[in-house]
């Protein structure tokens, strides 16, 4: 058996492994292969389970890593003599890491580099073999399994092995099957394990192994079967095994395997962009899917060894943001809310510095929904610009929605079992509406967005007048209007209403901002409310409205979510005067969420904001005594105040005045490689930065859904520079004419294409919609050169050259 194991293990790829199968009598015998998860030899109904897991190879690989983390924590628990399902076991993954690895709050981000590496060596991901489709080995020094238990653990489907264990991630006993479907064309996966000696109870403790594959259909089966199935290798009705004390499987620093588990994925189908050294692109991808892994992971590259270290620790994006790559972030803000329906939700919003590439931290996942640090669903970058109204932060904003402590029934209806997709049902809508409401009201994010907009765009009245004259001359016939309009108007164009606004309306004098002094721990926590006539600090809130209470503090922004020595902010009810019950006396509420939906934001720039929204269980005239407490090592800081419920706000019934409906134009912005004039916008100013390949960017409005705010056009793009060079246009006036024509053509064509794509999107489901902000610029990279040649004929060129 030992020789058979090494023949399988040492195969360089699936083709070499197939040769081993074809030439070994035991492996070649179909009677030695048994359906995966089957109850009997004819149970072949596992194809759907395997094929309906994660749709992408990276999150599928993450499932293998989380299983290894679970196994390591389970080993620690069992070695201390505790049943993992008992009440004595840790109640969360964070508690388990704190207890078994002595890491405060279960967050290893401030553990020393050496300490992290010692922990990470217990879970390793190793790449060998082909440079495009590598073999990936996942090793863990976890509890391991006896060979006779494989069919109840590794090879089972739907068993309740972890359902009642609170400190592990796995629940459904099928997630790890998702990676098998990305193993080459034949789906080969090796599983091997040996139970930890301390858990053996003096029984035979051999090293067991098996090979998993998709059953190769015979000619007759091809005609008879609608699908294949997955199966595993066994001999004489049991898992192959042999005795070991240790073996060399190629671990980091020549560490020997003694106990634990290994899984080897042959010819793994990594997607384009992830096929290089795994300590580079795959490392970034894993960091994005494991925002905060419970334990660090060691990646070991054995295919590419020149020029850099062959190993790297994978710590998750949160650790990178707070500790290791903190110089790449602009600001991180914490927000939390709790409702009776959703439960408690913590949100971390990180804004990265201008110029940081979105692929480094975000890529296609700008809003992530995590449970125990693992991403269970995400929203694209277009959500930031089009739904949150933060167009300049589209490529620089990462929002983590921590759903770990969410109410169980709500979370169950939010995520798919594959931990990759969100269910687009009622809970999805409720949560997204709440997230949009909270983030869109955040003044700090609005300010950062506006500051970047001011930096990137320098408007030209001359260009605006030029384009206005062209659009007014356009024959906007019924067909063209029908093409562009939505719901009876041209929503994606700004109306001319703003021309009738008082130009002095928004010209408030800017207050001089005082410098922020931030300490590691707070010594100030003062409420920003004036005393009333009775000497009480009272905040009046309409029954149908919201009220914001601000607190001044002097603690750093990361205080409430940093990994080490973090603080807590709590809101408690001290008293309740039922003055509005209409004679009905109701008991004093025990929790703040009984009478208010509370959203906490900050600290940000020495300010914490608490937003209170009355629930249906409170009435006009009621007064609630509230205590806000901020923890501090020198003694907790408290602010006591009162919330008084007043009459609802009256809704305005005045009809909106009808104004001119002719469409106004999005602001045109010319972008240059380097400044030609002091007010010019440059490539470096844009978000993300322009290159010569870029033609334009379309920026949606931050406060009007479906409206284009600006179109930035690259006046030094390779397309126009090549055109000018190829046609030997040397005089200044000729170059100006070509540039102006290019500018107008790109502007109007992008406008119409945007409108066409948006109309098509309206007919699509959310998951199928195109990202217009990505699609339109992509279309114009090849299209711009075509426009230049189509719209500038020989007669025009001759005239330009003569002048």
What does this structure look like?
Mean pLDDT is 84; it is low at 479-510 and 658-662. The radius of gyration is 31 Å and the shape is globular. The strands form four sheets. Strands 1, 2, 3, 4, 5, 6, 7, 8, 9 and 10 form a ten-stranded mixed sheet that branches. Helix content is 28%, strand content 21%. The longest helix has 30 residues, at 732-761. Helix 19 (732-761) packs across helix 20 (772-791). It has four domains: 2-313, no CATH class; 325-454, Ribosomal Protein S5, domain 2 (2-Layer Sandwich), CATH 3.30.230; 481-490 and 666-802, no CATH class; 525-646, Immunoglobulins (Immunoglobulin-like), CATH 2.60.40. The chain is of the alpha+beta class. A hairpin with a 2-residue loop joins strand 13 and strand 14.
